[in-house]
Amino acid sequence: MGDSQYSFSLTTFSPSGKLVQIEHALTAVGSGQTSLGIKAANGVVIATEKKLPSILVDEASVKKIQSLTPNIGVVYSGMGPDFRVLVRKSRKQAEQYHRLYKEPIPVTQLVRETAAVMQEFTQSGGVRPFGVSLLVAGFDDSGPQLYQVDPSGSYFSWKASAMGKNVSNAKTFLEKRYTDDMELDDAVHTAILTLKEGFEGQISGKNIEIGIIGTDKKFRVLTPAEIEDYLAEVELIVECAIRYIFLGPRVCSKSNFRWKTKSSNGGGAVEKSKRDGLYIDKRGKFRSFNNKKMSRKRCGSLRGRGWKYGSGFVDGVFPVMSPTGQQILDLVQKEVDKSSIWEILDTLPASHTIWDDIINVAVQLRLNKQWGSIILICEWILYKSSFKPDVICYNLLLDAYGQKLQHKAAESTYLELLEARCIPTEDTYALLLKAYCKSGLLDKAEAVFGEMRKYGLPPSAIVFDAYINGLIKGGTLKKH
Q: Can you tell me the distance from the alpha carbon of 152 to that of 5, in angstroms, rounded to the nearest whole number?
């Protein structure tokens, strides 16, 4: 008799020792919006996504982070109505403790009482488990504390934790970023970066909530304006990290992003920093000077565009390197150890801007005929990065393998392109033809024409030119 026979019974264990309704409650938590908490050396941060079901909903009425006492706050993932019930019960328990003992309830005790309520709803008839998990942040005489409480009533103290639909990626990111000596501001930055890992759309102060408590032992929810300031700092920190990787620590040595500077003249001309890419706007806030936008005005982004075979450039324009792209290019040209380059590339944020920079670098390497470096870059995109490669990446790799007479690798790349459901272009077939011809595999080269007909793509002059060029370079056909 399987567990499904017991799925509607709360108080009966299944043969495998499970209370299946609790499993269903955990599923409700797992389908909720991502929430996380981080315990810093001098405080605690809790944060969550706040996506409204409709643009007509008043966003001020949706609050996913609540204070239980002046020094304790809570966030949830799962069912909002269940959360409101638990908040009301927890506040009542805290009030009773304060009335009896004339002091604030300790964080651990409030968590224990809340967990007891949740556990009671797993063994009583006529009720169901709460479909929420909670992250409770507090600061008392024992210092900063972070607890997670699950529908079963179990609770544990955490240094950092996450829950919701993106829990796996969020916890992996936190494991890499967390340090015991992390300050409160650093924890806020890390929380934002963690939410951005699986966030759909543009993150802003209106679609996330952040609550903090520091050494003053006063829990508060940040305003959208405060969150926007932290988001701006995160952008600068990411930019600074990239420059640190490629240029060394001296570049950002004078940029303290926690320091809020007010403009002395209250407006007027903007003072730009040519040294580190930062400037102070008319409101006296640090902003990043986006050199990439200037590059796009000159040449446009490479992402999603076609690639003219044999030209080495996109849409007739040679790639113009952004500062970050140029630093990546210099690194690849100087560094010879593959693992070292991949390790550095792994630290780059997975953004559209970085994607454009990396593809620009690969196209520039093609112009320089540095086929080994192209293979290194494109294999990192395919096998190590979180980017979803498009056809231009596969075409660059096909070309590099063909030039190095690695026809089997070129063939495997073509098959991977099909498995990834990318649409082959005439460039794809032209490069595959050339790879076969240079290796003297005329039968396979001619089979490519059949492959093109199979997908309803008639061979163009570009394809025939690649075929003839490959025959000449492969020594099969003499050039007259």
A: 20
Query: Would residue 457 count as lying in a domain?
Result: no
Quick one: 76 and 183 in the same domain? yes
Is residue 38 scored above 90 in pLDDT?
A: yes
Between 344 and 215, the higher pLDDT residue = 215
| CA dihedral sign, ordered 23, 25, 31, 32 | negative
Asked if residue 441 belongs to a domain, the reply is no
Using a pLDDT cut of 90, give the percent of the chain over it: 31
Joined together, the tokens standing for residue 401 give: 């393998």
**In Å, how far are 63, 84, 319 from 398, measured between CA atoms?**
51, 57, 20
E runs forming strands in 229-342: 271-272, 278-280, 286-288
Read off φ and ψ for residue 56, nearest 5 degrees: -80, -15
* Same-domain pairing of 308 and 328: yes
Question: Which residues lie below 8 Å from residue 23, measured CB to CB, with a gap of 6+?
Answer: none
3-state SS assignment for residue 306: coil
CA-closest candidate to residue 78, choices 121, 117, 36, 133: 133
Q: How far apart are alpha carbons 392 and 460 in whole angstroms?
A: 19
pTM of the model as a whole: 0.53
Tell me how crowded residue 260 is: count the other CB atoms within 10 A of its CB: 11
- Tell me the C-alpha distance between 373 and 20, whole Å: 53
Q: Which residue has the tokens 């370079």?
A: 473
> Whole-angstrom Cα distance, residue 189 to residue 233?
8
- Residue 393 near residue 361 (C-beta atoms within 8 A): no
